[in-house]
Amino acid sequence: MVYSSLNALGATVVFATSSDNNHPPANLIDGDTETFWMSTGMFPQQVTIRFEKPVTLTELTVDTYNVKHLKIEETTAEDPSQFQHLTDKEFAHTEGHLQSNSISLKGSSATHLRLTVTAGYDAFISMHRVMLH
User: Fold this and answer.
1) I want to staple 133 with a disulfide (CB 3.0 to 4.6 A). Which of 49, 59, 93, 110 is the partner?
2) For the stretch 103-118, what's the b/e string if a residue is b when 16 or more beta carbons lie within 10 angstroms of its beta carbon?
3) Stretch 82-104: mean pLDDT, rounded?
4) How far is residue 39's CA from residue 121's CA, in Å, rounded to a whole number?
């Protein structure tokens, strides 16, 4: 099953390293590529998503702009701590349109998902949508 809106899983954004009033972190999980979370510059940039109940992480699709490198971590802890590294992904630069990348994961269970942008193609990046498969 594909969850284009993580809101359907009871997900919430519990932490973000930056926030813009017009493009808040919650836009990342609303399932709409027209809305987005925009960083305020510099790296790393990080967002942590909490799920209402544990979910299985098999595949993740992220729609972004200007992201060069993304680190993905998970935890089953009640609070967002003790994260385990899942994978790193290098994204190709796409001028003028979104980067859409599907990333295979280990199929582990998680209560929190942490996405860290460690590098970008510009000082500012945007993350438009995160989907679980």
Assistant:
1) 59
2) bebeeeebbbbbbbbe
3) 96
4) 13
